[in-house]
Structures are given as structure tokens and as C-alpha cells.
Write a sequence for this structure.
DNA sequence: ATGGTGACCTGACCGC
DNA sequence: TGCGGTCAGGTCACCA
């Protein structure tokens, strides 16, 4: 269940495990989108020290003071993945592919389950800890090509404008495709792309190089606002333990156009339409978002 | 270079 | 009730 707010919420949910020791790891299938490392159980005895996020990737940093060793795990939740915590009476579900057993200082046990029906996720070792402080240093297959973080101060209308016009003729691809391109800006998935374009009154098919700086400013402002709001809401649902069953995230919040093709535009009442862009449904209001 | 498509998978839902 | 088709929050590899 990954758009950036969900990943951020998952990151926050892991904080109670920081400082806890891994006492076992069970791998229940050999692969997800990539093979799951067969030596995950070498984490046994390691302590979770830090959880960070880059784009939609979670980085779990472990160390083992006794051996002066550290390991970092890279986790991506794919389309349907989640990291869920249970007490040790939990019965393994058929989609619980990896179970990490944790123990705190009082001896209380927690199971952390990587659950992913569609198995589009990724769990692999990250080579080192370089990305703890330096987002750009890792020549890693997954992390090296990522663009700017959407909530970073450097992500502005001007950033997009510069990206588009650095080339002589500019980038003519549809704006929705551009903002979903992880090499441009990370973490904007299909839902928030549709919502932010609606709020900025920009047609998803608008060629990027037809947009003014003012339009790009507005779009960026809406992307930031909607992601921040979603993170806050994700965080608030976290207080009760219902977050554990994965229905609580963004499905709970009000989406204005995503998934509402054929319904009335909440602003003007026109019928919302759907266009396929890059294989993804893109709902928009033909009246509020003229091409 | 870059745009479009297929691939990876299961599950939910819809219409017959 | 059952079956086939379609669609789903992501991303990479490949081909034209």
C-alpha cells in the first residue's frame, strides 16, 4: 500500500522497534519481485537502530555492538505490501512472506511481518550505510536514479521548469507522466498525481512544456500540501492499532477525483472522465482541467 | 534518448 | 454459485 504517505506512516510505525533485538528471522518464500536474501537470519542478534525513507523505499539499519557489525535492509512495499506488527500469538497468514522476531529490554516479543499478496515488493540487503546521511551517495540499483524528495525545499515550480526547459525544445511528455517519473520527483503515485492535477486545474495530458511557471508553482504547492495532509492523517490513524489491517490508509481520506470516473466533479458538477496515460488510469474533470 | 508495452502476482469486483 | 474478464496504490526491462 504504497504511496509516499503510506511508506512514511509505516516508517513511523516502526519506531517502537528501535532499540529492540532481532531474535529470529523466518523467510517463507524465496522471492518477491527480487529474490529474498537467503541469509536474512544472520540478522539474529542485531539491534534495529534507525529507520529511514528514500522515495518509497524503507531502509532498516541494524547493528551488532558485540561484533562491531552493521547491516541495512532495503524494503519496498510494491503495490500491496505492508509491514505489520503483532504479538507472538499471531498465526502466520499465507501472505506473510518474512517474519522478524523482535525482543525488547523487558523480554516482550513482537513479530514484524512483511505481508504482500501481490509480491511486487522488494526486500534486499543494502550494501552499506552511506544513505543514512547522504541521499545521493549510493550507486545502488534502486536508489541511484531517484529524483528529488517532494517535501524537500528544493522541489519547487522552478525545479520542474528547469527540468523541462534544460533541453532546447523542452520536455513534451504529459505532465502527469512527468510528475510520476521517479527520476524527476519521487513518491508521487497515481492517486496523488490525479488529485494534485485536479486541484491545480491542469489536464493530466497537458504537455509539460506548455505549462507556465505559475502553473508549475501551483501544481507543486498542491503536491506538497496533499502529501503532508495525507502523512498527518496516516499518522493519526496509527494511534489505534487498526493500522495493522491495511484498509486504513488513504482509502479513508476523501479523494476528489481518483477512482471516481463517471461521477460528478465536486467543483463544477461535470462528469469526470478517465484517460489512460502510461498504462495508468487518470481521472480528471474536462471542464475544470481543460487541455 | 525516450515512449510505449509487457512483466511480475493475487484478489476484488462485475456481468453473464 | 461459478466463471471469465478487467482492474488495482509500483517499477524495471525491453523494444521500436
Amino acid at each position: 500500500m504504497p504511496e509516499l504517505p503510506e511508506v512514511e506512516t509505516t516508517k513511523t510505525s516502526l519506531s517502537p522497534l528501535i532499540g529492540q533485538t532481532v531474535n529470529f528471522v523466518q523467510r517463507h518464500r524465496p522471492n518477491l519481485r527480487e529474490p529474498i536474501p537467503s541469509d536474512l537470519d544472520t540478522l539474529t542478534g542485531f539491534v534495529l537502530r534507525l529507520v529511514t525513507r528514500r522515495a518509497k523505499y524503507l531502509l532498516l539499519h541494524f547493528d551488532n555492538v558485540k561484533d562491531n557489525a552493521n547491516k541495512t535492509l532495503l524494503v519496498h512495499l510494491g503495490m500491496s505490501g505492508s509491514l505489520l506488527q503483532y504479538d507472538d500469538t499471531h498465526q502466520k497468514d499465507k501472505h506473510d512472506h518474512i517474519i522478524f522476531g523482535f525482543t525488547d529490554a523487558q523480554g516482550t516479543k513482537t513479530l514484524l511481518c512483511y505481508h504482500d499478496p501481490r509480491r511486487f515488493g522488494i526486500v534486499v540487503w543494502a550494501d552499506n550505510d552511506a544513505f543514512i546521511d547522504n541521499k545521493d551517495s549510493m550507486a545502488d540499483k534502486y536508489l541511484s536514479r531517484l529524483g528529488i524528495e517532494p517535501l524537500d525545499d528544493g522541489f519547487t515550480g522552478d525545479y520542474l521548469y528547469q527540468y523541462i526547459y534544460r533541453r532546447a525544445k523542452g520536455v513534451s511528455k504529459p505532465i502527469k507522466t512527468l510528475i510520476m517519473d521517479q527520476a524527476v520527483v519521487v513518491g508521487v503515485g497515481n492517486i496523488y498525481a490525479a488529485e494534485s492535477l485536479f486541484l491545480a486545474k491542469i489536464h493530466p495530458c497537458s504537455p509539460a512544456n506548455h505549462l507556465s511557471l505559475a502553473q508549475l508553482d501551483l501544481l507543486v504547492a498542491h503536491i506538497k500540501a496533499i502529501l503532508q495532509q495525507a502523512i498527518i492523517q496516516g499518522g493519526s490513524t496509527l494511534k489505534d492499532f487498526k493500522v495493522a489491517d491495511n484498509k486504513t490508509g488513504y482509502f479513508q481520506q476523501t479523494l476528489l477525483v481518483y477512482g471516481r470516473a463517471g461521477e460528478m466533479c465536486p467543483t463544477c458538477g461535470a462528469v469526470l472522465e478517465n484517460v489512460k496515460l502510461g498504462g495508468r488510469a487518470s481521472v480528471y474533470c474536462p471542464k475544470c482541467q481543460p487541455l
Notes: Chain A is about 20% helix and 25% strand. Residues 1-3, 6, 33, 56, 76-80, 118, 120-122, 141-142, 180, 182, 189-192, 249-251, 258-259, 280-281 of chain A lie near DNA strand C (CB under 10 Å from a C1'). The beta strands of chain A are 21-27, 47-54, 57-64, 69-76, 82-87, 96-103, 109-115, 122-126, 273-277, 280-284. Residues 22 and 43 of chain A are 7 Å apart (CA to CA).
